[in-house]
Please model this.
Amino acid sequence: MSNYHIKHLEEYFQIHRKSVRDPEGFWEEVAEEHFIWRKRWDKVLSWDFEKPEVKWFEGAKLNITENCIDRHLRIRGEKTAILFEPNDPKEEAEHISYQQLYERVNQFANVLKDQGIKKGDRVCIYLPMIPELAISTLACARIGAIHSVVFAGFSATALSTRINDSDCKMVIASDGSYRGSKTIDLKGIVDEALEECPGVETVLVAKRIHSDIEMKEDRDKWLQPLLDKADTECEPEIMDAEDPLFILYTSGSTGMPKGMVHTTAGYMVYTAYTFKNVFQYRENDVYWCTADIGWITGHSYIVYGPLANGATTVMFEGVPNYPDWGRFWEIVDKHKVTQFYTAPTAIRALAKENLECVEKHDLSSLKVLGSVGEPINEEAWHWYNDNIGKKKCPIVDTWWQTETGGIMISPIPYLTPTKPTYATFPLPGIQLSLMDEKGEEITENQVDGRLCIKFPWPSMARTIWGNHKRYKETYFSTYKNQYFTGDGALRDEVGYYRITGRVDDVIIVSGHNLGTAPIEDAINEHQAVAESAIVGFPHDIKGNALYGYVILKESGESRNHDNLRKEINQIITEHIGPIAKLDKIQFTSGLPKTRSGKIMRRILRKIACNETDNLGDTSTLLNPEVVQEIMDNVLKNLKI
Ligand code: WTA
Model:
């Protein structure tokens, strides 16, 4: 029996056991199915979590676009590969067939080559959710260039930091973008970012909003005329299994964002395998993931995983509330979507609206619903199950990370009984462990601990771009011979996992990972600010919102607090982007610190969450009086 499509839960157990007993045999069998290999691997896996170094399918040669596009042309040439749904529902949707995708990717690849991009060069892609975004990532992969997609909601500073960190030679952008009824001047942001990026030689500009923008001579080039002249054939660059495919930045708890490096063969095999099994994709299904390609979910489950399976994948440019809160359901109805994959923050926002927004639309095409990005709370889970799935569609609560490349824990639709708020079982090939505070593995069930992974999987990030030491320290140094996820988890009596949230200083706001340190650094740039600390607190829709404690310099003390709050959020918007703005800012004379000078965030978190009854052990505090001051100010209901 093929292990490419799991059919029964018993089969899941069997396959999982086999994948543990013989991981190499297991992945070899998956890799032998369906894919085009220009040369077969010599060795399935070599690994060492001490170094750390992991290699999958060493010696193999391939091009991922051949597997995502060329391979389908003979039987699926006319089938829609990408179904583009524009921001404005009055604008017609675009069906891009596999044949057209082939031609457009090849043309784009030829343009990249003409502009001097070669194998191994880094190309930054800063585009809204328009077809050029998917096409340009694939075009990079076609010629072996490494794409670094930066979410088009990031600010100029965040963009330039990412461009410089990986020395990108080129930026692919658009004149602007639509976001509901608004337009955004993306090219303006790029221009500002590039003042700090001497290494960028070329900017290719796609026309989307047809705004009047400035084009810098010799650097900026309109994309379309170049594409029009380009040939529709481009030989794929033949890559080694472990050649980098892309870099994608994710926030860390300290300092610079981490450029996670994903490589070619393992990533392809794993995203293809998990897409097929987790979404139970069938030939005529229409699959829709609402994420942005600027995040890992979009890379793995809008572009690579679906296309590797010859699927039809929907790309939506707009937002859930434009022109009204029924937009998602209108699209499901219009395109007869069969699998729908979104984030809890979107579900919570949608659930607040009148049910009429849902009921107006026929959702009977839906078969599987997915959730990703943060823990889904019970209420949201039931709303999704009752009103969208009509209790007929299994919900796959998929746990994974930018670093893992693909889904790690998830129910298999129709096989794994779902349980609200539980991501359930690890997928085949995934060996999890829960660790206690002493660094020992917890073997019993019904306990919580820190979630680790004890054996490599094909799509794991191989390093942090330019900083292997940080990769080792962040993921492989907390527990010996374990990859540490940074998440806490609970294992129930049958072995189901429930993710309880981050245990480090990363806060997930509306599904976006935000490290506290970069936000604090931004705030501290304000001339009136001496020091600051950020914590998360629960928020109805965003999951978490940010609460900042700020100490002012003497010079700032006389300033109007409301104005300061606005300025602080303005600085954060400039340094990171509007997603990192603070909901609450409390000015204080000090921060609770341990004798070694570390801020005790645990206490600040409790105060922000209104859980001041039991602050826990405060005996190691250097300045307990500050805690009292902060609490008094909250009680006095000072405007925060
Ligand atoms: C969180 C997104 C609970 C988790 C694919 C993880 C989740 C971080 C879930 C990674 C889930 C993701 N349940 N928490 N189903 N999925 N997370 O890198 O804390 O943007 O470590 O990858 O999101 O976020 P990232």
Q: What stands out?
A: Residues 250, 295-297, 371-375, 397-402, 423, 485-487, 499, 502, 508, 513 surround WTA (CB under 6 Å). The mean pLDDT is 95. The chain has 20 helices and 31 strands. The first strand starts at residue 43 and ends at 48.
